[in-house]
Amino acid sequence: MADPEKAQNRIQELRAEINHHNYRYYVLDSPEISDAEYDALMRELQQLETQCPQFLTPDSPTQRVGAAPLEAFGVVEHPIPLLSLGNAFAKDELLAWHTRISKMLGHARFDFVGEHKIDGLAVALTYVNGRFTTGATRGDGLRGEDITQNLRTIRSIPLSVPKGAPSRFEVRGEVYLPVAGFHKINKEREAEGLPLFANPRNAAAGSVRQLDPRITARRPLDIYIYMLGYPEGGNMPTTHWETLEYLKSLGFKVNPNNRQLSSIEQVEEYYQTWVGKRESLRYQADGIVVKVNQLELQTRLGDVGREPRWAVAYKFPAVQGTTVLKEIGISVGRTGTLNPYAILEPISVGGVTIRQAALHNEDDIRRKDIRIGDTVIIQRAGEVIPEVVGPVVSKRTGKEKEFKLLEAIYDKEKGRPACPVCGSEVMRPEGEVMYYCSNAACPAQAQRRIELFASRSAMDIRGIGENLTATLFREGLVRDIADLYHLKNKKEQLLNLEKMGEKSVSNILNAIEKSKEQPLARVILGLGIRHIGEETAELLAGEFHSLDALSGASREELMSIETIGPKIADSIIALFRQETNRDIIRRLREAGVKLAEKPVKTEKLPLAGMEFVLTGTLESFPRQEAEAKIKALGGTAGSSVTRKTTHLVVGADPGTKLDKARSLGTKILNEAEFLELLSRGA
Ligand code: IVH
């Protein structure tokens, strides 16, 4: 295209088109074209801009990662200070805030906007004459750092806004790293031997404060805009809610989980909803922000110090806390692994007292530089075991001791390291990070196997947990999982155990009886075959329909099943090859445990051959229920999007699975379409 005028027109056309598709993809999560079509548009624009550099402008979509590395960040003065927020840690504090502002506002009627308080970092974005000109960190609230060139790399920040926007305005929002992106970055850092980020917030801050924007560009950062800083010119909305709608109309990404709330009771409900579901969000949130909706009333309420009176952060119960790591203990896992764990000065995190936390393995302890005596950050997430995130290095006194596993388990009498439970020799297989107890008959291993067999996701025998298993073992009442089914003949001995009454004994015996009818997948899971989790157990049950068939399967047969590789195949074969395990299975059968089930004719079912993956939150039912419905209709439910996935079901606030599905061209269903499919099937 030699004609400059034509080139200029086409450049403008292409930019408008690409900006539109960027917006559909990065802001709305709802693209209209394939990645390949998008790439073609970008390439055409790049070529034209190379041919006619006179038409190149900084707001061109090709210019997101153009800038050269900086020596240092410049300083930006905030025309209006960026405030922080007062906190409410419990309902009475929220109500006290409400009472305070109600008094100040007298008879004025007002409502609220509830938003998530995202754990990222606050930024202020300035637009002049329709273009993004300056992006700054909060800094001390009055002055921040100029991180414009890094923020330009975040695709959900528009480089330009539609005509009609105020000639100069500032928006504020939270830049964050989605949890999935955080794990991905840490995995890469681990592979490169770099120190790991403690949490998504630190990772986001570290990414945004890079002098080289090319590094920032590689981090999957995102943003939610939560307020208008100041506008110049134009008629502005009178409520915060309308302001957010207005910002959306300018192309900014606003959190779809924001809600307009008409009473303080509704605020509490909104909070309760998200306390329960915070783990399902694709970002880390540490609370909700409650804002008075009427802007005029916001002004009337004003600020105290650096905090506005018109808003409050109502915090979720803490998931992190700091305490002293007193000692590192070592437990023996189901497969004989020697697992180091932290023995802590007890600390309450979110209302739960924590005395111990996971430490994974020796390499991990060294990589995080955790030492005995350190003050450490503890993290609790949902039901999982709390873990030690890392040390607070600034609290070191110099007296902290490095941990060496082999020294910790050194047995002076034997003159060698020894399993802390049975005293046997320990070993570390080539290429593995874990040490193992070499004794297959180690009582610790046997106990862990019983615990797994009885656990919720396997045979679900309520009442048999770590403590009772240890007691039963010590008293010689069970040695392996099959012995559980003979406990009914040992009622007297059970009644003699400490804390065991008539009622609890009969409950446990009933639970054991009932477990005989559990589906085959649960039995397979309960056997504790290495590398086999719930999903693989179900897959195997569906393929083989009986434990006999599974135990007779050859390596080739096993590996012909999709998703079963050599590692899993070998561990299945290894388990069934062992005489002791064959004996256990024989005794399970004799005891009446169901080890086979009739094949379900999946081919005739309406969703046969389809694999569904879910992302985001569905309104109609919880995820597990949705998966159960899919399976009942002959489909399968996967946890991640692969080439095998036929449908991705997208709920509210979807995660990165959506990007993956788009890049693979997987069929994408919204909730309504999904329900429709289920109802057609039913
Ligand atoms: S409003 C004047 N809304 O929380 C109101 N802040 O402690 C100030 N934050 O520095 C901010 N999500 O980094 C607001 N939806 C949200 C937020 C939010 C996260 C952060 C922000 C701010 C800090 C205040």
What are the defining features of this structure?
single chain; about 675 residues; alpha+beta; Helix Hairpins; D-amino Acid Aminotransferase, Chain A, domain 1; OB fold (Dihydrolipoamide Acetyltransferase, E2P); 5-stranded mixed β-sheet; 5-stranded antiparallel β-sheet; 25 helices; globular; binds 2-(butylsulfanyl)adenosine
In short:
The protein is of the alpha+beta class and 682 residues long. 37% of the residues lie in helices and 20% in strands.
Radius of gyration: 30 Å
Q: Trace the largest sheet across and list its strands.
A: 2-13-10-3-9
CATH topology description of the largest domain: D-amino Acid Aminotransferase, Chain A, domain 1
Q: Can you summarize the main beta sheet?
A: 5 strands, mixed
Total domain count: 6
Q: Could you report the average pLDDT, rounded to the nearest whole number? A: 91
| Associated small molecules | 2-(butylsulfanyl)adenosine
What would CATH call the architecture of the largest domain? 2-Layer Sandwich
CATH class of the largest domain: Alpha Beta
At the fourth CATH level, what is the homologous superfamily of the largest domain?
DNA ligase/mRNA capping enzyme
- Distance, first to last CA: 57 Å
Tally of individual helices: 25
Per DSSP E runs of 2 or more residues, the count of β-strands stands at 26
